[in-house]
Structures are given as C-alpha cells and as structure tokens.
Automatic annotation (TrEMBL):
Gene3D superfamilies tied to this protein: Crotonobetainyl-coa:carnitine coa-transferase, domain 1, formyl-coa transferase, domain 3
Taxonomic lineage from the root: Bacteria, Bacillati, Bacillota, Clostridia, Eubacteriales
Protein's UniProt keywords contain Transferase: yes
Protein name: CoA transferase
GO terms for MF: CoA-transferase activity
Keywords: Transferase
C-alpha cells in the first residue's frame, strides 16, 4: 500500500522531466496511465543507454506506469483521453502552450469534464509571456538561468552541468506543485491548473543572482572551486585521484591547518579570513594538495580529515557511487528489473525514490512495454475487444 493509493494520474508528458514527475506518483502508489503515440511511443524510449535493446532511461523514467497508445490526431483518440480525464485526479502534460487547447484537451475543456482535476503543465518558459511558444530542453534552461555562465574555468567557456539538471529539477517541481494543489483540493474541493517552467526552476536555484545587487554583471567562475569561499572545492592527490575539501567556518579552518601540518596558516594575514583565502586560493590549494599527495589512496586522507571534523570526500565516479557501502545500506542504490515482456530478464543498478517515511515507503516498480495496458485500460472505460483492436489499428496507421 502506498500513500497515494486511490489517486489516478493521466500522464501525457514526454521526454524526461514530465515523465519523471509522473513516476514519482507511481512510486507512492498512484495509478499512472501513460498515454503514448503508437509505434514509437514517448521519445524517452529512444534515449540510451540500452540493455538488450531496451532503453534504461525509459525503464527508470516511466517506471510503475500503465502504457496505453493513443493517436491524438484522431477524434476518437481525443475522446478516449477525455474519458480518462473524467475520473482522474491528476492530468499531466508537457506540450508547448496552445497545443493541448488545439487538440481539444486544454485546461478549460478538461475542467468542464472534471472540475476537481489537478491539471499540471510543464514547459520550458511557462504558459504566457514573450518566450512561451519557444521550444526548449534542459540545456536551454541551464543557459538562460545563468547557471552555465557560473560554471567552468575562469578563462574558459561557460559549461553545463554533466547531467540533465533542469529536467530533474523540473520533475521535482511539477511533482511538488501538483501535490500542493492536491492538498489544497482536499481542503477546499477545488481543482486547479499548475504551471511549471524548466527555466524558472533553475533560476530559482541560481543563488548568484544576489551578486547583481552589489554591482556584478556576472558571477565570477571559479572552475572546480567556489568564487566566494576557500577552501571549498576540488583538490588533487596522487595518481589522478581527487578530493573535495570544504573548510567553512573558523573552527573547521583551524582543524584543517593542523591536519595538513601548517598551523601557522591560522594567523597568516593571507589566510586568516575568508576573503584573503579566496584571493590567495592557488597558494592555499598547493598546501592542501602537497599533503594529499602523501597518500596512495585518497580515501585514507579523507578519513583523517573527517576524523578532525573537516568536511571532505573522494570525487566519485559511477562505480564508486554504485558500490559505496553507505549508499547501499541506506537503500539509495538499488537493482531494478527490466520491464515485463521486453525480452530481457536482466537487472540494472539505479537510484531509489527519494526519502524515507516512518509509515509507508515508496516502491520502485518496473518500466512498461509500449501499449502493454491497451486492453486492460480501454476495457475499463467500456471499449470491447473489437473496438480496441479497431482503434489501435486505426491509430497506428493514421499519421
């Protein structure tokens, strides 16, 4: 039993962010009906990596859902989606503004069918304004939020984060926004439209915006360090190993000085406060790296730093993340089974749903083969086997 048992979600979203939000509802027990185009399905099904020909991106992003194929260019397809919406709690979509209205599935139409529904829209730029009709992906959000300009080496190009940060943040924002509206409905009985933007999600994360108030047009890039704190970043050890050392606060700074064998730095005017440490970062980094390079295994250095209360860690690669004992103990890294009837019985390591709860834990479910629930779902809404076969054939053939 999940905390969202009895909640029905219609997932019309595509790619990564929207489907990622819908899967969070499934983690907590909601029934999620995934509406996909015939033949090819959600674009996410074409995203690598692949195991035995199956997209692991899709297997994770669309976990726990019931896939139903529908052609939205056909009036009977639109009619079926309206039936789905009639007794749903949540309706999610990620088309550009205006597309759902042109299809006859916009918020005003769906609200007439089901006044209590929570209608969640996820777009690049929101539902209105100068940029509303622009297409946009994660990297657009990273660029226009100012995060790319703050990332990278001082003399190099702006750099994106190495994962689709905007998509993951967008997914969490859509989930949180819809859950907030669901609570409001429980209190008032009113449904509503939730409008979430990928770009706004990353603007909200950009704490550097406050620097504009003190006369900076751009936040200075500091590469693998921090433009406002030092030491607070990446430090090299032996044989290419790297560690993060983050000594914020007087007590931690003084502990670091003692550990690396340079207690005199505590009172040195070049290092005795945050601002001079930032100004003299290169020299300070050299002191720390000279100490780190004494160790064949950088984890030994990290253990010493941690024992003295200095926040630090090895910079992990994928294997480190997957094999870390604490992550396994906490259940943050888990094995997920491949979708039923996909032609593979293998498992793969992935990340677990976020959070632990004292009463009811989220569950990680399998992905779903395209159209696997066509008959089950359509039968529930009054379609005969003959109707279902006719419509699926028609929808697959219609462009």
């Amino acid at each position: 039993m999940g905390m969202l048992d009895g909640i029905r979600v219609i997932d019309m979203t595509m790619n990564a962010a929207g489907p990622g939000a819908a899967s969070m509802f499934a983690d907590h027990g909601a029934e999620v009906i995934k509406v996909e185009r015939p033949i090819t399905g959600d674009d996410c099904r074409s995203f690598g990596p692949f195991l035995d020909g199956v997209s692991l991106s899709d297997a994770w992003t669309n976990r726990g859902k019931k896939s139903v194929t529908v052609n939205l260019q056909d009036s009977e397809g639109v009619g079926f989606v309206k039936k789905l919406a009639a007794n749903a709690d949540i309706f999610l979509e990620s088309f550009r503004p205006g597309v759902m209205a042109r299809l006859g599935l916009g918020y005003e139409v769906i609200r007439e069918i089901n006044p209590k529904i929570i209608y969640g829209s996820l777009t690049a730029f929101g539902q209105n304004g100068s940029y509303a009709k622009r297409p946009g992906y994660d990297i657009i959000a990273q660029a226009m939020s100012g995060l790319m300009a703050a990332t990278g080496e001082p003399e190099g190009d702006p750099m994106p984060v190495g994962v689709a940060l905007g998509d993951f943040v967008g997914a969490q924002n859509l989930y949180a926004g819809v859950m907030t509206a669901l609570y409001h409905r429980a209190m008032t009985g009113h449904g509503q439209w939730v409008d979430i933007s990928l770009v706004q999600g990353l603007i909200f994360m950009n704490g550097n915006l406050h620097q504009y108030a003190v006369g900076r047009k751009n936040a200075p890039r500091a590469g693998a360090h921090n433009s406002l704190l030092s030491p607070y970043g990446l430090h090299h050890g032996k044989d290419g190993q790297c560690a993060i050392v983050a000594a914020v606060g007087k007590k931690i700074w003084e502990s670091l000085c003692d550990v690396i064998g340079h207690p005199e730095l505590k009172e040195d005017p070049k290092f005795n406060n945050v601002a001079p440490r930032v100004a003299n970062r290169k020299e300070l980094t050299a002191y720390i790296e000279d100490w780190l390079k004494q160790f064949d295994n950088i984890n030994d250095a990290v253990d010493i730093l941690q024992a003295h209360g200095v926040p630090s860690c090895k910079v992990y690669g994928l294997e480190d993340v997957i094999l870390d004992k604490h992550f396994r103990e906490q259940g943050w890294i888990v094995e997920q089974s491949m979708p039923d009837n996909c032609g593979s019985d293998k498992t793969f390591f992935t990340r677990a749903p976020v959070g632990k709860y004292s009463e009811c834990q989220p569950q990680l479910h399998k992905g779903c083969v395209l159209g696997a629930y066509n008959h089950e779902v359509m039968t529930e809404y009054g379609y005969s086997d003959e109707d279902i076969d006719r419509l699926q054939k028609k929808w697959a053939e219609k462009k």
